[in-house]
Write a structure and sequence with these properties.
It is a single chain. With 408 residues, the chain is mainly α. It folds into two domains: 195 residues, no CATH class; 161 residues, no CATH class. Helix content is 86%, strand content 0%. The chain has 14 helices and no strands. The longest helix has 38 residues. The two termini are 33 Å apart. The relative contact order is 0.11. The mean pLDDT is 89.
């Protein structure tokens, strides 16, 4: 519960910062910021290549020196990924978000820091000593929010993309140095001295972790490749409008992952060992109904508040009820698909989960390109709904085809 609480603080602080900046910058600058945030999330995932899953399942419960040595041995692997992927990140950030050289350098600091923060959290899930590193990440996010919040609330016109990126990168650099320092001071084993070998240390790990990485990166793109399409086909101003709609909904999805999905996953996994499929479906359905009621209630409350103010909020921030409704529908369908995927994973059918992801990703991606080119940001939102629907229907079919009782 402590780790969940700290993670929620981190997410809320980050959400407050990103949403506040997106709503405070001009539409074009907001589009730039939203695109670079999307690329940072994608490449922070790519740098890790889901290596942490292999570490978690092999090192959970092992003595501290063994665990720390394994983490140290993974550092050349992550460094190799930086060298290969960082240039690609910089090119995409320059082309899509149109960042200048100084902004690209700042973005590079942030994306590496975000990867390190991700790894700290993932390792803390199986080794409590790493929780102190998560505290540092949360402190960094609170610091960035604290520095920018006065301008967000009282003088948004003073905010510029340069100031925002400089603040974010500076705090990220300090946080990363603190994480590295604390880890070196607290580690209980010296780094393994095996040298650097592509054949022995790098390629094998890419192969071992490829399945989990493919599932992770496709899942991320399914959630966010509509933003990249908007940036490519709709321009920075429309991107700013789109990001203002999608951000709050996406952070709500992140809260769902931490507070709901992660909370009931152990319960469903445990029940899947002895209980029939209908019981698992009822378990996730109860959770989904609660989340759906919260989503509908929150959306209705926001509309009522805006109407009571004469539409002042929607006019000021260029918000559309129709666009928001489409995006929220897509997100709630995706949540239903995630719950179905939980059951699929519980019965060790992750291969079928990966197949469903690829099919929906390919079909939804084609629709995304066509509809965004044709209808702009509304088309991107419709494609988002279509992708989530395809994914949900495929997973529901997998669940229904499973034997009701677990194999003995």
């Amino acid at each position: 519960m402590y780790l969940i609480a700290i993670k929620l603080v981190e997410i809320l602080a980050r959400a407050g910062f990103i949403a506040g900046i997106t709503y405070s910058l001009g539409l074009s600058a907001a589009g730039q910021f939203g695109l670079v945030v999307t690329l940072i999330g994608l490449f922070a995932l790519g740098f890790g290549w889901e290596r942490h899953i292999d570490i978690q399942r092999r090192m959970v419960g092992e003595p501290e020196p063994v665990f720390d040595s394994t983490v140290a041995a993974a550092m050349p692997f992550w460094s190799f990924n930086y060298a290969v992927m960082l240039p690609v990140f910089l090119v995409l950030a320059a082309l899509l978000a149109r960042l200048d050289a100084a902004q690209l350098a700042l973005a590079a600091i942030v994306v590496v820091s975000e990867h390190i923060a991700n790894q700290a959290y993932q390792l803390s899930l199986v080794n409590p000593r790493y929780r102190v590193l998560v505290n540092l990440v949360a402190a960094k996010n609170l610091l960035v929010l604290g520095i920018t919040l006065p301008d967000i609330l009282f003088a948004p016109s003073r905010l510029t993309l340069n100031f925002v990126m400089t603040t974010w990168a500076t705090a990220s650099l300090v946080s990363t140095l603190a994480i590295v320092t604390v880890w070196f001071l607290r580690r209980q084993a010296s780094p393994a001295r095996t040298g650097f070998s592509l054949r022995k240390n790098i390629w094998p790990q890419h192969l071992v972790s490829f399945t989990h990485f493919r599932i992770g990166v496709v899942a991320y793109l399914m959630l966010q490749y509509d933003r990249l399409a908007v940036g490519t086909f709709a321009g920075l101003t429309d991107s700013g409008v789109y990001f203002r709609h999608v951000l709050l909904i996406f952070f709500g999805y992140q809260l769902f992952t931490v507070a709901s999905f992660n909370r009931i996953t152990p319960k469903v996994f445990q029940a899947a060992k002895t209980e029939a499929i209908p019981l698992l479906i009822r378990t996730v359905r109860r959770e989904y109904v609660i989340l759906l009621a919260i989503a509908i209630g929150g959306a209705a409350l926001a509309i009522v508040i805006d109407l009571a103010l004469g539409g002042a909020i929607s006019a000021k921030y260029h918000l559309s009820v129709m666009l928001a409704a489409i995006l929220l529908s897509g997100t709630m369908i995706r949540v239903a698909a995630d719950f179905a995927g939980m059951i699929v994973n519980a019965r060790h059918q992750e291969k079928k989960l990966g197949e469903a992801q690829l099919i929906s990703f390919a079909g939804g991606g084609l629709l995304l390109v066509v509809l965004t080119w044709w209808l702009g940001i509304v088309g991107a939102a419709i494609a988002n709904v279509a992708t989530s629907t395809i994914y949900f229907l495929l997973l529901r079919r997998v669940v229904r085809a499973m034997p009701e009782s677990p194999s003995r």
